[in-house]
Amino acid sequence: MLSLRSKETEKKYQEVRTGRDPSFCALCEATPLEEFTHWKILQNDFPYDEVASTHDMLVSKRHVTEGEITQEEWLEYNKIKHGYVAEKYEIVMEGTQKLKSIPDHFHVHLLVLHPVDF
Length: 118
Ligand SMILES: [Zn+2]
What we know:
This protein is α+β, with helices and mostly antiparallel strands. The protein has one domain: HIT family, subunit A (2-Layer Sandwich). A hairpin with an 8-residue loop joins β2 and β3. Bound molecules: zinc ion. Zinc ion binds next to α2.
């Protein structure tokens, strides 16, 4: 698989991942950059720095899977996605179960790509 992280970041990520207590949820513990009623924006400590200059995440405040998100939460999600997120980021990216390192806590990735010089 093509790596979205640089070699150094991937190495740090794997080190933390293997040493992690399985009951610890980094998405619940991190300090948000921005908070909404049901959602928060977190900075990704292990960014996809091979492709992106900014890598944050849109995360539900509750520790729930995608299937447990309520209709009220989805309404706000859409508002944030088409407002705040659309203004600040270029890509909204969601990993499938194969890619997700934290499958128990719903989150999507928010990226601003590196500029390309042709
Ligand atoms: Zn969590």
